[in-house]
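Predict the assembly for these three chains.
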Amino acid sequence: MSNVPNDLQYTAEHEWVRREDDGTLVIGITDHAQQQLGELVYVELPEVGRALKPGDAMAVVESTKAASDVYAPLAGAVRAVNPALTAEPELVNTDPYGAGWLVRLQAADSQLTGLLDASAYTALLDAAD
Amino acid sequence: MPFIPHTTEDTAAMLGAIGAHTIEDLFDEIPAALRVDGLAAVPVGLSEAAVTRLMRERAARNRATLCFLGAGAYEHHIPAAVWEIATRGEFYSAYTPYQAEASQGTLQLIYEYQSMLAGLTGLEVSNASLYDGATAFAEACLMAVRGARQARARRIAVPRYLNPVWLKVARALVAGQDIELVEMAATAGRTDLDALANLDGQEFAAVCIPYPNFLGGFEPVDELTNWAHARGMLVIAACNPTALALLKPPGEWGEKGADIACGEGQPLGIPLSSGGPYFGFLTCRKALVRQMPGRLVGGTVDVDGRPGFTLTLQAREQHIRRSKATSNICTNQGLMVTAATIYLSLVGSEGLRRVAAQCHANTRDLVAALCSVGGVTAPLGPFFHEAVLTLPRPVAPVLQQLAAAGILGGYDLSADFPELGSAVLVCATELRIAEDVAAYRLALAGVLGVAVAA
Amino acid sequence: MREPLIFDQGRPGRRAPSQAPAVAAATDDLPVGLIRRTPPPLPEVSELQVVRHFTRLSQLNFSIDTHFYPLGSCTMKYNPRAANKMAMLPGFLDRHPLEPEAHAQGFLECLFDLQEMLKAATGMSGVSLTPMAGAQGEFAGVAMIRAYHRARGDSARDQIIVPDAAHGTNPATATMCGCAVVEIPTGPDGDVDLAALRQVVGPRTAGIMLTNPSTLGVFERRIAEIAEVVHGAGGLLYYDGANLNAILGRTLPAAMGFDVVHINLHKTFSTPHGGGGPGAGIVAVNDRLEPFLPIPIVGRRDGAAGHEYRWLAEAERPKSIGRLSGFMGNAGILLRAYVYMRLLGAEGMRRVSGYATLNANYLMKRLADAGFAPAFPRRRASHEFIISLKDVTRDTGVSAMDFAKALLDKGFHAPTTYFPMLVPECLLIEPTESEARQELDAFAQALIDIRDLAFKDAAAVKSAPLTLPVRRLDEVRAARQLDLTWQSRTDSPPVRLPQTPN
């Protein structure tokens, strides 16, 4: 069982997206994803200012078992990355939707197209079991 | 049946348990059209005594010679204990240490090796080794391109007097990844600093600096290091490990030190072995550790808090990253690393320094002795344990005649570096005592038809 | 008892004086700015301390010489001592690689013979001995395939097809050669999905990388059709020789339709694993790819006094993909493989696959009868087979990893775990032909006993191993708090300058 908050949007690659009041998007990986990976030992984040297209490999999350790419769900420029993850990559495990956020994007397009809502993402997880 | 322990009874009982009549039944899933009856072209098996006889006869056809040849492989004294211990079954027939609890011997040894190589090169981390010096150099180039800030810089600047075979190997290995190795201009046996300006306007991920270079001499390491760093390039040092006991290590070059060091580890306790197996070493600054290919051993603790060792950062490696791996390398030269670690422990810091100093002194004496033969000159500057000599005649026939007299005179440079003329690269390690040098001098005089005082 | 680090056993000024020159030669003619000022942090210990330390370290290891090692895909068979002794004869061991060929005829003849025997074992017409590991052999194979297509003017072929069960080196190699990887699924019976294959082949197909028997431990029964599909689309077939032990002398990769093969000499031909290497990954090819073989290659011609052996000159191999090593590959490993092959002979090689397959099928039957779940119960085992522990895991929480650790306590090295990734909680078991029946029975009993314990006291199994020098190690900590050298430890003493030595 994994936690899927209702107020977020999701991708089929197990990322979540939250739109902030200032119009930026915060992105991370879901509870399901962090469970699959195991305890993270390292997170590789993009450079601030980098321009991303949807599907670009944006970050890498590394555990002892696996290293997975995290993909940009939408086009945008990187405004900020989570500085706490250098010292504490395990925040992604303990608080994947909060303190374990990865990247903040300035979206190129104000519309959040092509994302799944919480029930669609949950259905996807259930189908995979 | 060599190495098959099964008796007829065993085989019958096992087939009975499976429910098959013959061993051939077990292959019934292989389509008949694909089957062969055996390997006709392979000779009949021999007893161990017969194979021993065969191999002794073949080994005896390889004539012993007095070796003044280096060019990437060096004859040093190897303490007897090194291979006695390295070929113990517990090291020789052990597998890769994936089950860490059952491999603490190998893992601790590799940790000690990593410590020694990092320290020798003056850098912070080392991997568990690569196949050989040439491929370590290729991997260092790939690593520099991965670690480079500028995405377009898929280019490495290499000096003219880098080992020519290493350059060929690197080109073969990086060909599929669109990376270019660009030669820098040279003068008087080393990179021409005045010609560096010609490279302005091109972007490079790194420069490679051999140490010593292929001619045995010294590149301007500090100037090149600072030049590279000022342009945002990484510095790759390609070093002889014996020399590092005597000479300033790459970590202390220029203002900031080199970023990556690589080289051929054969001089550290590995016999010449007709060309292999050897091992390549690769060390780097801590910031680049995640770009480093190959295996890494790290210290940790077990559930009781007891210290131990395990393979770490494996997520970088092929078996986890698969198509995103930093390289496809799946091994390290475990047995050779075992020998090298024992070697370095036996000679120690002072011992290795003395070996290096003696190599230098013996080569100096060799050069002086051979230059006393009319027509032989030493045209270049300071050297470590190899030096360039020019001869009054073409090199190849001279070397041939020396070989017939039981002397491996050196490496013919004239094909790779025609600008040096009739040039030969000679080497004297700590094993080449005064009598050996005298024998070479006399033989060379004979071949050149020159009279010398005895 | 823990063995301290060698560095921690040293004392300032202690050394082994007989291992270096008695006097330090003068070096003041060297450029002053290049002289090393601080000595490297190498150990300061006596010769006895060194011998004792490394002997003790060796005793902390499992090895084939001491333990049964049923590691699937690794072929941990007996490494004959004769191979080591012959490879270390002074005539081979003390020889500089660049010595004139006239002085190396014995060595070159061994290599030439080895090339010929490897051609026979694979059905191929050309061999290069130079790749230094399986992964390098793979690189050579894919690079040759690309070179072949380019030489025909077909540079658009940049896709390599790989089954989802493939070993991790396969896709990594494809990427190194500038190719994209296309994965195809495996069917429920262990065969590659032919329909899926037909979908993905096309004008961008450079080739396919397969092993047969596959990593699932079963023979790819429709290999002839696979070859037809791939060749028909203009691609070539690459054979990963990791599992050659299963079919040696029974079928040939060439007969199956493969164009290029790499063989892991450290698997099938019993060269030592050495704690992680060195290996050798020779490549064998058919006529199509022969011009592209990596160099050097040994040639033979008839001279006045009989056969003359020589290295083929670069100029004679203009289409070669180039050199892959500083000299000619892992010569000493090649000699060991050669000795092994001469000891076996043709009939011995056929016996290898026969008894390896007998052992695997017997062990699989013993475990199936005891209630374990082979992944492909209706198929013959090749030289290895998979059992899935997922039901035990579901019922007790004890995983394949836990079984592996518990086996260590029982004096067996664990089988390969979690590979191939397709089968959950799997053990890939390869007994090899070297093992006697009683070893297999003891191993089966050990697995049965561990399973029984899992149901009675899962925590006991999960706490294994208990009898080894260390218990389970904190791998997260090893990755997060990198401790890769002695000198980086904050509690290690600072580097001392050497005292006046004895």
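Chain C touches chain A through five residues (CB under 8 Å). The first helix of chain C runs from residue 47 to 58.
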